[in-house]
Please model this.
Amino acid sequence: MKREARATARANIALAKYWGKADAALNLPAVPSLSMTLDPLLTHTRVSFDDGLAADSFLLGGHFAEPEETARVTKLLDRVRAEAGLSLHAEVESNNQFPTASGLASSASGFCALAAAARAAAGLPFDRAKISAMARQASVSAARSAFGGYVELPLGKPGDGTHAASELAPPSHWDLRIVVAVTSEGRKAIGSTSGMVHTERTSPYYKSWVDASPKLAAEVRAGILARDLPRVGTAMEQSTLSMHACAMAAAPYVLYFRPATLAALDCVRGLRDQGIAVWATADAGPHIKALCHVDDHERVAHALSRADGVLRTLIASPGDGVSID
Ligand code: DP6
Model:
């Protein structure tokens, strides 16, 4: 017996950042976050439950994944099996259609596509909130990729396993661009999960970060609804730098910035001084992502590609939520 389904999900970038957990066991966020779902950064995933399999297997980009990665996939599959009353093992195949070394994390689109494909293969009905909640348990940012356009994920209430993201506005609401300035080819030194757990344990600024986040997220939210880019951008930069400052104050420090990150950040401010509406964000890695109007993206990309240490740029626009293929 074989039950198979395929799903496609897109990466997302947080405009108001998530960093810290309200409940580690259920993987609930300690702060609210908002994001934009990104085209053309796609992950395609196929899940096949099969009674001929002795264990789950996970093929990522054509290669068998590391045991820790496979264990994370199995954990998600276990939840799907429990909900669907299924005991079959699964073969999982996932491919990122990201331009090589885009500098964008694939875990958000990956876990979201996995949750959608696994639920469909197990015969569960398509439900974005349920896909989002299931993806969230694997990785909080993945919860946001279930929806398209502009997405919000409130802070979690401890014990609430159903906690999910929702759509704030569809992709057509506002045609913004994200220009990614890629500054390194390698993998990040400290993963986001361990980086934030360590920040929470040791940074004296963690409480301030958690206390300040709701107001910044509310600003980003209001700015998106009003299509007010300076409002979104100003709050997004403050959310980003607050998150990084909090992580930098951990012991030992968690520092994702490289010299090229600062050069790109400076470049964005320089463009603003010239009158261009552009603001920067950065995740648990050294790349800068600049948010601007569609008409300015070529100028922004050109300037960023000339900043010291920037290897290349990539343009992303608002994209759709997860789908079953
Ligand atoms: C900096 O969602 O990767 O990108 O829930 O532990 O898997 P886990 O963390 P993850 O963290 C993403 C952190 C961030 C900000 C964001 O996307 O909101």
Summary: Residues 206-225 form the longest helix (20 residues). The chain has two domains: 2-173, 176-318. The chain has nine helices and 14 strands.
